[in-house]
Amino acid sequence: MLEELFASNQLHIINEDSTKTTFQSSRGLSNIDLTIVNNQMLAAIKDWEISEEESCLLHNIIKFNLNFTTNSKEQKYKFLGTRHIMKEQHTEFCKKIFQLISENFQIENDEGNTKGIDEKLKARLKGQKT
Q1: Where along the chain do its domains lie?
Q2: d(CA 101, CA 98)
Q3: pLDDT tens digits, 62-81
């Protein structure tokens, strides 16, 4: 369920494999801490690591660098993360909506021409002749 939540919201876990753990207590060690980011942050985060610095907490410090470059075309177009998640049900839903609009407003439905249907519907709602 958690993976589906992340995928549907275009979120990513950026934790990297490490021999170090994110949590330590007298009861044991584990990697319970997650670093979760969206697509834009995924492209900017570099050098994620679990630090060996002392911490007052039972959780170890997680460090990473942020690299925001506004004029680097290489970084802008090199990112291969998820951009859109389209489920088949969503596509079918959209087709059905445009079919119903076409039928109810007597607008010719050119398969796949959603922009044309949208423009005709806007004109119709504004009282203009289509």
Answers
A1: 2-78, 88-125
A2: 5
A3: 888 888 765 555 445 555 55
